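To the structural biology subgroup,

Please find below the input and predicted structure for PLP-dependent aminotransferase family protein, which we are adding to the shared reference set this quarter. The sequence is reproduced verbatim from the submission form. If anyone notices a discrepancy with their own records, reply to this email rather than editing the shared folder directly, so we keep one authoritative version.
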Amino acid sequence: MHSPVDILLKQLIHFEKGNATAIYIQISQQIINAIQRSYLTEGTALPGSRKLGELLSINRNTVVAVYEELASQGWVEILPNKGTFVLKPEQKTAIIKATTQGLEKLRDYPNTTGFPFQSSFNLASTGEHSISKYVINDGQPDLRLHPTHQFSRWYSASMKRATLISKWNQTNEQSATTFNLHLSNYLNATRGFHIKSHNIMSTRSTEMSLYIVSQLLVKQGDVVIVGNLSHYKSNMIFQQAGANIITIPVDEHGIDVDYIRTHFTKRSIRCVYVCAHRDYPTTATLNAERRLKLLQLAKHYEFAIIEDDFDYDFQFDGSAMLAMASSDAHGVVIYLGKLGQSFFPSFQVGFVVAPENFINEAKNYLQILDKQGDLIQKQMLTELISEGEIHRLIKKNITVYKQRRDYLCQLLSMHFKELAQWEIPAGGLAIWLRFEPRISLVEFAKKAKELDLFLPKTILYQNKNICAIRLGFGHLNEADMEIVIEKLKSAYNAVIRKA
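Predicted structure (tokenized):
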């Protein structure tokens, strides 16, 4: 006759011999789960090693390894000549992942809540999964260009700094941190600003920056003006804040500022969202005349300008046009930027530049979301700025990306010269490719996917006036580009034949 404990263990324990996890680990994890769920109570005597081996059809030495593993973690006590008994460790909330499904099936975790909550249509994910070998994005950097070994050394050196521990032990961020000081000096030198460390707030990303700004600026029903084609993530954030988004025309000179003057009145607008250098997605640059008009209009109409400088690091031809924030004498511009686009994504940092009173209020939101931030990241970026290393990395990558832009345009001229139109952008990692005559972009993406090339829906723009894609090239080397453009041409021909 088997004891109740023997029967219970035989029912609960399942293991897979072909699993990468050792059998004794699989079994010990499931016994731990049984103890956590109170199936095995404190003081329960477990079967002897020979008996449990027979129950589970495993070697006795494997059972010995199971009990030793449980004892080392404090789940059982092994008493010589007496047996193995269940304990309850002091850390009763320990979470152990079981590698098999035996225990979990006894108590399935609910798929739906037993209470109502507010879901958000505005924040529905735009991500799409694809197993295609080749992918086109909206203009992301190439991770292969990042100096892996150098970053490992820099990160390791930053972790060893004696000052790091003291910074971690601080209960409140200092009013002017070393990082903010270096970042403000860097922006003053590179972007024509005249800011102090109290005019800047660093965040994890541009999206986090915009989210905090929108929480401060936008109330339910407030009018936010964007271009008639604009960044989908920014629109999602504004909509979630309750904004009434109104689109205005965009041409080759950027958004139509005169349209704002003729269609809106004073204090009817909460803010206008613009891109500092290249409009998203069209890559058109807001010219100097319109910038001046927009600054004057913001002062007169009393609205804020959110200036998103998402691709400052990728200027190829000439000098980048100075941001409106650099000539803002009336405190109407909130500048969003990103530092470290030549680095791995985890080393990039977003920031907000604005008048001191706005930054102070924004930091109240930030301390809830991300009180301390990544201190090692800030330490490393501080040193890269002060040593000038960041300038070297940016210049090195700009040379590569400019060559890729030029080669892509050559390939487009070979394959799409009579089929599409585009301008060579002075910077950025994407080209605005407009098809003429028009085709079905949905069908185009479908045919491309059949050729192992994925075009996400977020780069496709089609309505009664537009048929275009935002063709990102930064992540593609020349060999990749040749294959991608050939696949695009084959997909295009397939769409035309079907039509």
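Summary notes: The chain has three domains: 4-106, 134-141+393-498, 162-389. Residues 389-416 form the longest helix (28 residues).

Regards,
Lab coordination
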